[in-house]
């Protein structure tokens, strides 16, 4: 018995020493414990659709106070989609009063395979009312989710504006989206100024863009206009389109349900809507500028709202890259003529914000200055990680290598604008105030912090 105990003790000692040596090995790592290194999860697995609804997005394609559109994705086994809606209540009994709403279905063939995209329209809604809804196939349902209809009258509201997200969405853009939501959880919509993704034909990129918002996209409507990266020369199967012409991503019309009140040839990529006393005009700066110009003038001329906000992807005054004279010459005179208050843009991957700008005093450099007849403010912003250097345009405030989001509030005679960095720090701010018979008063609220600029590279003598 004693010998057996000694043997066990000796064996334990040997095993203990061996374990100590193994633990102390400097090259020990989780990777060394495996037969082969880990592999990335394949995109076709990570973004594979199922019968369970995903990519749920709220949008508008009609009167914002009395309608709401919702889109979602399933696999092709789901032949018919449904939505249910009810007035939200404090308890669960709203389910006994829910209304069934049918949906339409579209087949999307992407580089990762086929999927069905469904669209339902909620109509005859009551303004300023909280609703609860869900989508599914009758068995596989999403969660019940709230949305609130806006007012039919002019009332204060807040929205979030994002410049280009575009690249490395999961790694770098998701945190910006979530920081913006944390700062403005009661924002009434999110506006995306183009280049939501990098390659318009890649399903995985669209999947990452939608996943950034997750359930927020199902509660707060999205407003978006296409950038150049929403266009592609190749179809989802990698075949070049005829004559090498770039076409809008096939994901655009199935993911989003936007108004069809723009030019017929630019359905759902150029449109307008009124929101609580403000007209929003969404332009497609990628093509058909001449087609949009007379349409734009009609929308501006017949505008009963106090405020007018325009968004398009390519900037009137670039913060980094080449000028866009066709857009500036075609559209800025109309902004001046009809008193557009602010233009929200992207594309240049470098932040730049002007003062009040008029078109009449055009200098040889392309810089214009304020006149007594016009005063529109222009912003170029970027929310994603792709960053460019600055040009020499005399912006009031600019930034390089900085991801930003903007929170904009319209309240009576004031429009308040705050630009914040990816960490939530206030970087730029101003207020526009309406004045009878005059251009807006611009009140600067720029924080007392230096501009974020790239270090100057000293040239060798």
Explain this structure.
The strands form 4 sheets. The protein has a 7-stranded antiparallel β-sheet. It is built from 7 helices and 23 strands. With 461 residues, the chain is an alpha+beta fold. The longest helix is centred in the first third of the chain and has 23 residues, at 2-24. Helices cover 18% and strands 29% of the residues. The protein has helices at 2-24, 43-46, 169-183, 203-213, 252-255, 289-301, 325-338; strands spanning 54-59, 68-74, 82-87, 99-110, 113-122, 130-136, 145-148, 157-162, 190-192, 222-224, 231-232, 247-248, 271-275, 278-282, 307-311, 342-345, 351-357, 376-380, 397-399, 404-411, 414-421, 426-435, 438-444.
